[in-house]
Every structure is written in structure tokens, then in C-alpha cells.
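quick one, 161 residues, struct below
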Amino acid sequence: MTDQNAEAVDPAVFTTNPHRLVFQAVLDAPVENVFDAVAAHPETWHRWFPLVGKDCQYTTPAPHGVGSERYITAMGWKLRERIIAWDEPHCWAFYVLPGQIPGKLFAEEYRFEPVDGKTRFTWTVATEGPRAARLGMRVAGRLTFKRAVPRLERELTSRRT
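---
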């Protein structure tokens, strides 16, 4: 299911792209648990990430890492994504394969840093596209992150019990 014609996105996009959004929070869980919940289990994203549907999974065989692909349903779209960073348990990133959404680029990076037994969770979104879409993402991204963090903490707590 790999699209060999899709131009690869360099992970440097998360520091060099002029149109990026960065959100941070501290989660009450160790980095290994947070990384596992985010990177390894797309089938559970609907429980904690707003606007994501239940139909999400990797389409490439395990073990997953850079180059793996998954699909995810979000806002009624079924999107194919390619993993471009997998540095367990510190960083996981992907981009949406071209031609599926408006604009030239949509990529996300998730960073996890240990902080006194907890995890500093940083979500970076890099986009290239129409100005209206970028402005919409600025507002939607903030609201999405604000809702996702407590839901992810609940998901992590439910896995402990």
C-alpha cells in the first residue's frame, strides 16, 4: 500500500517550516507509556484524540518504525500517513501522503521527555497550504490539544488498572 511516488518529508520540517504550531503539556505517566499509547496503538486514538474515528491501524507489518504506514479516519476523511521518525520512547512523527487534503504538507511530530517521573509532551504540526487553512489549524490545533491531553491521561490511567 506504499505510494512510491510520494515525495518524502524530512523530519527537519518540524524546526524549519515557517508554518508550524507547537503545543506542550505535562502528563502524569512515564515516557515509555505515553510513547506506546501514541505510536504503537492507532486503534485507540479515537478514545483520546478528538476528531479521530475508530477506523485506524497500521497497514504495514510489525515491527513498526520509519517508513511504516497507517491509515486513520479523521473528520470524515480516511488518510494514509507515513512514519518519518520513530525514536522510542522519545519521538514519533508522520506526514499525510500527498493528494489527500488541501495544501502541500501536513505533518505531525510527538515528542516525549521525562520530567520527574512524568512526561513533557510536545505536539508540533507543520503545514503548507492556503492561509485560511493554516489559520483554521491554529485555532483547531489549540482546542484539539486542550481536549486531547486529559483524555490521553485517562487512557493511560485505564491501562494501568
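The chain is about 30% helix and 35% strand.
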